[in-house]
Request: fold
Amino acid sequence: MDVIVAGDRAGLVKAKRTLGVGAPSGGTLALVPTMGALHEGHRSLMRLAREQADHVAVSIFVNPLQFGPNEDFSRYPRTFDTDLEICADEGVSVVFAPSAEDMYAPDRQVAVSSGRMGTIVEGAFRPGHFDGVLTVVLKLFNLVQPDMAVFGQKDAQQLAMIRRMVADLDLPISVLGAPTMREADGLALSSRNRYLSSHERHVALTLSRALFAGAERRTPGEVLGAARAVLDAEPEVALDYLVLVNPATFAEVEEDHEGEAILALAAKVGTTRLIDNVTVAL
Reply:
């Protein structure tokens, strides 16, 4: 079956009826929420979804609520025709591509609060960002009504916060995390990589090198020290943060912490802001 494109809520209801999703024998549905500009990392999410469910829905929606006033909402890459081809290649059943007017009423008042966790690490640099993320994800969950949803580990704090929301609000959805996909030279795949010039892309490799250097160490001080040494050697990287945090809460770990932690960073290379992380065994 060719991919069904639903451009609004009514189209989504019709698509789910066509697939038989929700009927006793209709099978399970996995949702892969995206903002489009799809790449190999998104393909990996779709493949994991196909392994876990009978049908896969992909949402394509550049969510205005998660962009700050000086961020790149207006220039965020929009490649809808190519995105549809990728979805068809990966066996996606339905693409939900609503407009902002369809997603948000002009007099909307209620939104999701991300709480304290939404104000630390990435949230400290992007106030309100995670409120916008959780609001749109909850709306997508309510509209699509999937059995499960798949998100990338590259956005590790986002993944942790969505899991927290699902637990706190008792949502009947399984949240799956997929490993970060990287280029052969280590650069984490991102829709924003297309902003980088050839030189800036070379400079951006400093980010993954720093994370890999830190991941080879085994105590918090050594992990952070090794990563920071790599970053300090590249003056064209403007670091926002480098932190070692608890995977579930994103609180920074103490020096005596043992077990898994996430080494995460955000930095600007030229005018492009990039994030990345790796899991570290302490």
Summary: The chain has two domains: 4-178, 191-281. The longest helix spans residues 198-215. The first strand starts at residue 4 and ends at 6.
